[in-house]
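README: folding subset

This subset contains proteins for which both the sequence and a predicted structure token string are available. Records are stored as plain text. Below is the entry for DUF2236 domain-containing protein (399 residues), shown exactly as it appears on disk.
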Amino acid sequence: MENLSRRKALSLGVALGLVGVAHPVQAWASTGSATGASAGPGPEWIWDDAADPVMASMLKSGHVPAINTAWASWVNNNDPLPSGLPTEFAAYLRQVNQLPSWADPAKLARAADFNRRRDTYLFMLYGLGSGIMSTVIPREAKSVYWSAGGADMQDRAAKTFTFGYDLSQLGAFEPTGQFVVTANKTRVVHAAVRHLLPQSPHWRAVADETIPISAADILVTFHSLGTYVHRKLLDWKIPFPAADQEAFLHSWQVAIALLGVPHEHIPRTWAEAQAQSARVLTPILSPSTEGIALAEELLGLTAQIDLGVTRGFLNEFVRYVLSDEVGDWLGLKRDYAAAALVRTGWPAFILFREGLSPIMPGTFYMFDQFVRALAMLFLNKGSSGTTTPITIPTGNRAG
Ligand code: HEM
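--- output ---
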């Protein structure tokens, strides 16, 4: 275990609702995945055999700027592949640009409906919970910081919103939706990063791996998103029927598959996801220079938008959803009055909003404005109000 003692990991796990710590050696031993333990290598030794060689070739031959231009108009799942793509790249896209055979349209439709019904909580948890958690996942923080996108976090955050936004749309997975294309573009960006980052002396100086973004890393990130949000909704006692939970998991299973993670390594149930998360996510959470800088940038950006709350409130909300331990790692300044407000006001807000208590708390409108403003931030795809297209980087952050 890297920087945490076993006991600290356990207490952090409890705070994040990601409990139960197994021996790290067994971390990936039983993924509880669709086909059981596979005979092949674990996901920490799997990158992307389909996308990586193609992207390395595209980058070496200087085709990427032309691909970025050509695919700008490729948006909907049923859009034809754009013309002007190099043959090899178009052949790759034709091969992967489809839902996996096991995708269940009924579950995906239900997930989309659930995402719409619960969007305010989801945006809040993805944005302030998962978004800031990503800065204490050292591999993710280091690769994001040292990749080209790390130099412009506003732009990067807007692109990441595109992923969450497209996933949350009603017809996300349907032919007129956009998620399959967005996921495919993201998969290609990750493949480019695998080729580019190892050439960065800055990244090499801090990385504990030679190639970034393994299937295991993607699963870790999935746990910081889907598994974490699922747990929090239950902890917050938001009504969450079993069929919604299953549908929500299914949409994530399809999303991770579209990002290139082999089916046999994708958890089958929330219980399995939770157990895997406790093994592979909670124990590795720790601060890094890069992560602290990214968190400050992300929270600074969020604070620029009028959420109707102070930066102290924002800091305390992050502490509330991620624990004081994480807040201390990131140096989030304390605001004890705001902390008291969050800890009493938020549960009361949920109870009233969900019709579980008839008493409207005095702080209701403040929290209401806060969740609405955060949701708008997502729904407008960042502060610009326009789609920020996902583009393939051609280099790394300079320094
Ligand atoms: C790019 C989502 C896992 C590192 C992106 C983009 C999206 C995205 C939407 C494109 C937007 C952009 O350019 O910023 C996801 C999702 C993941 C995941 C949904 C898992 C469920 C990971 C992991 C790492 C990572 C595990 C590293 C450990 C990066 C980097 C970029 C990127 C470095 C490129 C930033 C640049 O443009 O330079 N990701 N990602 N991602 N992702 Fe991921």
